[in-house]
Amino acid sequence: MGEIFSPGKLMLTSEYFAMDGALVLAVPTKLGQEFSFEEIHDEKSLIFWEAYHQNKLWLKAVIDYQNWQILETNIPASAEFILKTLKNVQSLSAITFKNNFTYHLKTNLQFPADYGLGSSSTLMTNLAEWAEIDPFYLNKISLGGSGYDIAVAKEKSAVLYQSVPEIKYEKVNFNPPFKNELIFIHLNQKQDSREGISFYKSKTKSQKRVDEFSDITRNILLCSELGNFSELMLIHEQKISDFLEIPTVKAKFFPDCPVFVKSLGAWGGDFVMSSKFDGFKDYFWGKGFHTIFEWPEIIA
């Protein structure tokens, strides 16, 4: 029996524009996904897959990987995705699903699936480490996306990430002196992030606009004062709003908030970042948003 862990992530800058090569700053979360594996040398060529959400069984499947057939499952659509992903693992790996062994594979997502912290990217990273394959390529053929979340999960660190013209990233120590003033609020709004991405892709981007977000990211990394950081966050949010022609999350939900509110990742129902002010908990609770984390509670 072996075990692997990958942290979740929060994308602080360059949402959407990451796909066109803008520099991304992303940080790991304390919660992530555990993966355990066991091989049984029985010549049966079976995979017993169990996926847990916060230690409660969510998905189970039995897969025949000689014929790539689902023999049993409780959620057919999700089992089909697992089958497709594991088939990709087999095609890329020199060591996995080659010897007719039976595999008992178990995952446990430590955060609620609707948090948007990277349930899929942590899965891809864990599978790739286990099978000794490239997590970025496994993610590309199984899911798509810019891959920044794979870099965070793989390095277990804050990263500066760029996907165009080729994937490159570096670990960074993003530990701002004002971090204890930052908070993260979960919006809990159901959104189709693919729809937002498709809309973004349909719009014409200039290299100048992409570079603007890279510059903001570099400046954010250098911030030593909350005031400068807040101003950059407001600028970043407004530029995305102007480009997408949709209101900022602050204009939509928090028009009277006295500080910045910044969307994280695809605009929609996941987390936003803000900073503390007098009565901030009562303010967000009063708006109906009850899940609030301070930096030390959520950022690894």
Automatic annotation (TrEMBL):
Record GO cellular component, one term: ribosome
InterPro entries recorded: GHMP_GYDIA-like, Ribosomal_Su5_D2-typ_SF, Ribsml_uS5_D2-typ_fold_subgr
SUPFAM superfamilies, sorted: Ribosomal protein S5 domain 2-like (SSF54211)
Stretches assigned to coiled coil: none
Keyword Ribonucleoprotein: yes
Keyword DNA repair attributed: no
UniProt keyword annotations, A-Z: Ribonucleoprotein, Ribosomal protein
Name of the protein this chain belongs to: 30S ribosomal protein S6
Species of provenance: Chryseobacterium gambrini
